[in-house]
Amino acid sequence: MTTSTTSPKSATRRSRASSEPKSGPRSKPMKAADVRPFIEALAAANPDAESELTYTDAFTLLVAVVLSAQATDASVNRSTPALFAAAPDPAAMAALGTDGIAPYIRTIGLWQSKARHVAALAARLVEAHGGQVPSDRAALEALPGVGRKTANVVLNIAFGEATMAVDTHIFRLGNRTGLAIGRTPRAVEDKLVRRIPPAMLRPAHHWLILHGRYVCRARTPECWRCAGAQWCTYPAKTEPKRSRAA
Length: 246
Ligand code: SF4
Fold this sequence. Notes:
The protein is an all-alpha fold.
């Protein structure tokens, strides 16, 4: 899954530190004409980019995304098969309740509050939405444990909307590459939505997250093997480390 795993606030704090060189010039805005080729290069590097979370429908996607806040997709995927087998739909999840959900997710960070949120959101889906995940942003964001970023992921993946969920990777990437420089996740989101060609916006969510996760890493970007390096404005591009024998 290519969903976000970090809250916007912590993304702001961490990415501000990791997206910029410790000294020297900062990234300039990427030229408008360079946005399309940059995104196309990331797409070509990950043509089949998709979610790395395990889910089967909109409900299990929503739960998995809520569980993935400040946790890795891999840690969520280790827990959710048993949880979803026990509670595959909102009614069953609501019946399981906080105490019933907790044992399944104890290895995921913040599991206590997440158990409460998942139980409450499942109950809300049953009470207010006929057991269905709503496709409306306001209704999604009104669910316990669901903020703008989670709503954007669900709208993008489950309902096909061209949304941009800004997690820690996308926040860092936007600032570091010059693609979308902004001080808050919302500012970066708005710039990405404005700058990325509309037809590319929905899959761009996946391309950017995978690029940030595996190439343009938080601590040290691997610029020497980056498909988008020629358009990226990061002023401190890295080179491969030389071996001792070299
Ligand atoms: S060139 Fe480096 S900083 Fe720029 S996108 Fe690629 S990995 Fe990230």
